[in-house]
Amino acid sequence: MSNIDLSVTIASLKLRNPIMLASGTVGYGNEIAEFIDLNKIGAIVTKSLSLKPRKGNAPQRITETPAGMLNAIGLANVGVEVFLKEKIPFLKKYDVPLICNIAASSVEEYVECTRMLNEEETIKAFEINVSCPNVKDGGLQFGNNLTAVGKVTEKVRAVTNKPLIIKLSPNVSYIHEFAQVVKDSGGDAVSAINTLVGTAFNIFTRRPKIQNVFAGLSGPAIKPIALAKVLEIHQKVDIPIIGIGGIMNWKDVVEFIIVGASAVQIGTLNFIDPTAPIKILKDLENYCKQMKINSVSELTGSYII
Amino acid sequence: MLIVNSPVKEIKEIQKDIFLQKIYSPVIAKQIKPGQFLNIRVSETVSPLLRRPFSICDVDGDYIFLMFNIFGEGTKILSHKHIDDTVDILGPLGNGFNLTNDFDTAIIVAGGLGSAPFPFLTRLLKDKFDIYSFVGGRSKNDVITYNLLNVQTATDDGSLGFNGNVVQLFEKNLPSFKSKKIKVFGCGPNAMLRALKEVCIAHNINCEVSTECAMACGFGICQGCPIEATEQSDKYLLVCKDGPVFNVKDVII
């Protein structure tokens, strides 16, 4: 029996460990449950939900880039009603905090989705996606506008008492300004970062490799940027941060926590090795033992500059 | 669906630039249906980052065979594996071909590397069914007939067999099949599959095709490989999970 305390607290959300599975990389949990015991994970963040089902973008939706991948899935999802009716029963079988990620085209849609999901006791928190770069309506047009982020946070706050996390875009000059707005508008925490806007072209056909032309860049290529954004927020704003961006192993997790993250989300790595989150947990515990750290939360923001 | 680090036991160039790799992976091998695929991590480094999907070419006991050409960095690394080097394989993935009892004659129509899934199908069907294979390519070096039966070939440039595309060759030969219980199994470039679909629908022939699409995970979580269903739907089908094998009537290729 280990005596390392891996538990972390984000606002009123208590997690058994800091390893969360990122939205859009675990579907609604059923596929990845074939590979790992979800009960061992800190939390699952569902695929972005919108009020009505979304078919998503036409193919090609994915392409690989150096140490990264571009995706323009276009928030394909079953919609809130089907999620509640058909997806929640599976997730209820597990003792793992469920965080619903919500994406919308208008402030009203964010509010309505949250209101509908709020009654479901299995859902422990909300992560509001104001930063998806791959949809024509909503998405990034909210995420790079301080007023819009403040308004979405405030309006959603009004319909839920559950922890409210806003997932921030890195495609802005000063991400801490957005974190400050979230805090001032009643948000409990921020996730940083969503994907970076990128593109790729075929040099022989001169056509974009992704049908949507612009896409979200993820994977280890973006880790240094994500770390810098987490550090910037930590240095300027007193708000819990969930670190996301190119985590491939336990060392990356530790690095995110040291620069200010209370917890982290594993994303692209789930596609490559869906068993990795469990391996990372074990390695994280070993690191704490080796470094004589009793509680992983002691590490948050422990950088020395 | 398993992830197993499996040793490479043999690699040979079966024809110019086409490699056949034999992998020892007993647990995965015994679960495979023809038409399924593996998603392979060729390296532990972050470049290339994603797994690569490969048709399963054949299964013999504890061994899995892959057929590939060198297309990019991933296949280049795979082709350079030494005996007993391991590859990280995730599989078996996808649905595979439906081997129901409603046909007595199997017709394979393959273009280029589209031949890859058919040696295993041929192995399973050859004792009970009549099998005919139509195999095409742009030129004679692109025509892969490895372990297929009753083969007729077609090339776009006329360098081997019928001068034209493989679907034209198949259609030309259709009157020679006496059986009314024909099933066509197709794999190849999308343009070829579209043409095959048209011919099969026009002649009311049951046809399943193996499709391909760029994907990351291979088991449904990335949602990267959509294919449009013919019936109006509020969602795409996924090549990795709902396919890669589809009845041509069910999808828009």
UniProtKB/TrEMBL annotation, chain A:
GO terms for cellular component? cytoplasm
Q: Does the keyword Transferase feature in the UniProt annotation?
A: no
Tell me the domain of life: Bacteria
This protein's name: Dihydroorotate dehydrogenase
Family, per entry: Belongs to the dihydroorotate dehydrogenase family. Type 1 subfamily.
Q: Which gene encodes it?
A: pyrD
Catalyzed reactions? (S)-dihydroorotate + A = orotate + AH2
What is the protein's known function? Catalyzes the conversion of dihydroorotate to orotate.
| Matching InterPro entries | Aldolase_TIM (IPR013785), DHO_dehydrogenase (IPR050074), DHOD_1B (IPR033888), Dihydroorotate_DH_1 (IPR024920), Dihydroorotate_DH_1_2 (IPR012135), Dihydroorotate_DH_cat (IPR005720), Dihydroorotate_DH_CS (IPR001295), Dihydroorotate_DH_I (IPR049622)
Q: Which residues form the Dihydroorotate dehydrogenase catalytic domain?
A: 6-286
Residue positions annotated to bind substrate are 47, 71-75, 129, 194-195
Q: Which PANTHER family match?
A: DIHYDROOROTATE DEHYDROGENASE (FUMARATE), DIHYDROOROTATE DEHYDROGENASE (QUINONE), MITOCHONDRIAL-RELATED
Q: Which sites bind FMN?
A: 23, 47-48, 101, 129, 167, 193, 219, 245-246, 267-268
Please state the protein's primary subcellular location: cytoplasm
Q: Which GO terms describe its biological process?
A: 'de novo' pyrimidine nucleobase biosynthetic process; 'de novo' UMP biosynthetic process
Query: A GO molecular function for this record?
Result: dihydroorotate dehydrogenase activity
Keywords associated with the record: Cytoplasm, Flavoprotein, FMN, Oxidoreductase, Pyrimidine biosynthesis
TrEMBL record, chain B:
The residues the record assigns to binding [2Fe-2S] cluster are 217, 222, 225, 240
Protein name stated in the entry: Dihydroorotate dehydrogenase electron transfer subunit
Keyword entries, A-Z: 2Fe-2S, Electron transport, FAD, Flavoprotein, Iron, Iron-sulfur, Metal-binding, Transport
Q: Where is the FAD-binding FR-type domain?
A: 1-99
Q: Which cofactor does it need?
A: FAD; [2Fe-2S] cluster
| Family under the similarity heading | Belongs to the PyrK family.
- Gene encoding it? pyrDII
What species is this protein from?
Answer: Ignavibacterium album (strain DSM 19864 / JCM 16511 / NBRC 101810 / Mat9-16)
Q: Which GO annotations describe the biological process of this protein?
A: pyrimidine nucleotide biosynthetic process
